[in-house]
What we know:
Helix 6 packs across helix 12 (259-269) and helix 13 runs antiparallel to helix 14 (351-361). With 553 residues, this protein is an alpha+beta fold. The longest helix is centred in the middle third of the chain and has 21 residues, at 298-318. The protein is 30% helix and 27% strand. It contains 16 helices and 21 strands.
Amino acid sequence: xxxxxxxxxxxxxxxxxxxxxxxxxxxxxxxxxxxxxxxxxxxxxxxxxxxxxxxxxxxxxxxxxxxxxxxxxxxxxxxxxxxxxxxxxxxxxxxxxxxxxxxxxxxxxxxxxxxxxxxxxxxxxxxxxxxxxxxxxxxxxxxxxxxxxxxxxxxxxxxxxxxxxxxxxxxxxxxxxxxxxxxxxxxxxxxxxxxxxxxxxxxxxxxxxxxxxxxxxxxxxxxxxxxxxxxxxxxxxxxxxxxxxxxxxxxxxxxxxxxxxxxxxxxxxxxxxxxxxxxxxxxxxxxxxxxxxxxxxxxxxxxxxxxxxxxxxxxxxxxxxxxxxxxxxxxxxxxxxxxxxxxxxxxxxxxxxxxxxxxxxxxxxxxxxxxxxxxxxxxxxxxxxxxxxxxxxxxxxxxxxxxxxxxxxxxxxxxxxxxxxxxxxxxxxxxxxxxxxxxxxxxxxxxxxxxxxxxxxxxxxxxxxxxxxxxxxxxxxxxxxxxxxxxxxxxxxxxxxxxxxxxxxxxxxxxxxxxxxxxxxxxxxxxxxxxxxxxxxxxxxxxxxxxxxxxxx
Length: 553
């Protein structure tokens, strides 16, 4: 069985160097990325000049500017840094197809069976170093049999364990006591010196195959990817390096410091598998047509769409996807790009469903001095479920029924209206599960929702044709319907009142409109034929009284 070889690439100054690549300063200067930590501005990434000036990561910004007033800063951008790490992952695909991201600034690459293509592991790391130098990136690399060991070598090889002054370590005792307590190692008594398990430079360390245990034995415990509290607890017991816990009983170690400590150790030593899961390539559906001569007529653009759309639909069908949003890009001779997009009410992978919507948008394209390239892309897609094959008669009947069904025609209509008015402007109503009259229905975008199935639920009592926000009514403060009242600067006389219908507020929600407590609704007909929907609020967190919430037909 071929031994695994894992490469860990760590970019310690990735946020700062990402911005410096865009600035392209003529002279090097101290530069730092500033982020928020517990409400304070701190340095999260620095370049080499800032570190040479005595600044450090995690330092408050005001302290850093006091030390180095000429410090240049830039706000942190986690989204941009994650996108840049994805770009680096695609670059690392030249060395192996198995590349995974380790946010925020690391890559892990499975080099098993790939190093000989570059002349060996050393030659491969030289090429990595040259590429990073061309990209303006600082990197640290570790190559070992396991991801855990490679991660440890990339970050801690050549370093020392961080001291913790707690008085328990032999190094902190008196010199005479320490001299008696320290044991002489075998090679100090005349034996052979140990064979180096690692080789490389300060930026890249290589552990020989089968020597991962010896390579990480002298590294600090933080190299095992342990929590800071666990490392501090082990250090207080005098355990500072990985070799100090390699021979300890696993049960006692797990009982005292958790199973994760043992798991991380086993992963670094190769006793527990830790596979490298590469990121899957995103589904991308786009076709392009480059024209020998610029075009400017609508008929020519339609012909280009007719050439591209069947190929795009074929790619969608091959992956079992349907387009919900299609974008057409027209590249003009002067460098400008005209873009139009259409949304579909239902995912589709057929030309007949997409083409009419695109033709509605072609008039918005300004050809200018001519269009020399047309690109068609399915920006948003959804999976389409396959249909079981049937006989010719059943299949024909099913196709005819699907094409003539009211739902299919409605989806096409919604798509055409959305192409002209906007997908969010075409809406539909759905019933909602609420006893509050104003919340009995919800409004949804028709392109992103399905019609309500079944009968519309009947309300417990008639509801008004027009619903209003509650408007105050000047009437006596009594739960009985008023004989006279004033609403919208009009004096009205009650002719007939029907009710009451008591509605309780939703106690699990803090609705500001229902802080006046329980409501008793009345259907009040006044002289002149107007029929109002009034309610009396009993009072609660807000004052009660009479209010109007709508009127009937």
